[in-house]
Amino acid sequence: MKALLIIDIQNDFCPGGALAVPGGDTIIPVVNRLIDRFDIIIQTQDWHPAGHSSFASSHQDKNPYETIEMEYGTQVLWPDHCVQGTHGADFHPSLITQKTQVIIRKGFRKEIDSYSTFYENDQKTATGLTGYLNRCSVTDIYAVGLATDFCVKWSVLDGIDEGFSMHVVKDAVQGIDLDGSVEKAWVEMAQKGANILTSEEILS
Ligand code: VGL
Ligand code: ZN
Fold first, then answer.
1. Strand 2-7 to strand 165-174: parallel, antiparallel, or no bridges (unpaired)?
2. Long-range interactions of 119-127: CB distance < 8 A, separation 24+
3. Among 58, 69, 144, 195, which residue's CB has the most CB atoms within a 10 Å radius?
4. What is the spatial distance between Cα 76 and Cα 74, in angstroms, rounded to a whole number?
């Protein structure tokens, strides 16, 4: 079985949002077309409590995009974004969400961030998605959404470690790009064995 994994297509990651990914909303029509071709649809939702430890505003003398050492390693600090229950945390209104059967919320623990939809950033705390997908006999996961260099990348790398065949639809993702991080993400995903393809190859 194959599943479509729609990552973080939320208002705050789209133009006008608090952590806008350049062109973040341009992928939505592509994602909507892909939804038709899958029976298993999973969405992720970045879902932070106010004062989350990944927000620069939670640390003295820190600006967004600087880094900090956390117990679990280096963490990029972000503008406040995707705060639980706010408009910024809602899915973009153009995204078709009716067919989605599971929504994985992540980053909801104040002291730990979560980019990947399989593990939080300590690389130990599981979200439980692997169990769900295994019970549904999913072997192949097609990743789309935001952002290529953070949540998409970590989900794809962890998905491979969890034993899934991971596919990344390159015209259905967009990146933040801090110091070449998008280019690096493509290399890391390809080197680990992700299959990179276009939406055309799925739709045709
Ligand atoms: C993301 C930064 C912070 C993402 C989430 O969805 O890629 N990036 N929180
Ligand atoms: Zn976040």
1. unpaired
2. 119/158, 121/70, 121/72, 121/73, 121/75, 122/71, 122/72, 123/72
3. 144
4. 7
Tokens matching residue 167: 């596919």
> Which residues are paired to 105 by β-bridges?
45
Enzyme catalytic residues: 8, 106, 151
Q: Which atom of ligand 1 is nearest to the CA of 151?
A: 7
Q: Which residues contact 43 (CB under 8 A, 6 or more apart)?
A: 5, 6, 7, 9, 91, 97, 100, 102, 103, 104
Residue range 21-58, pLDDT digits in tens = 999 999 999 999 999 999 999 999 999 999 999 999 99
Phi then psi for residue 51, to 5 deg, are 75, 20
Residue 96: how many CA atoms within 13 Å on its side-chain side?
A: 12
pLDDT digits (tens, 9 = 90+) for 149-183: 999 999 999 999 999 999 999 999 999 999 999 99
Hey, whose CA ends up nearest to atom 6 of ligand 1? 151
Nearest ligand to the C-alpha atom of residue 151: 1
Which tokens go with 203? 């739709």
Side chain identity at residue 121, one-letter code: N
Distance of CA 152 to the CA centre of its chain: 4
Please give the helix or strand (H or E) that residue 134 lies within, else none: helix 129-135
Contact predicate 6/100, CB 8 Å: yes
DSSP class of residue 147 equals -
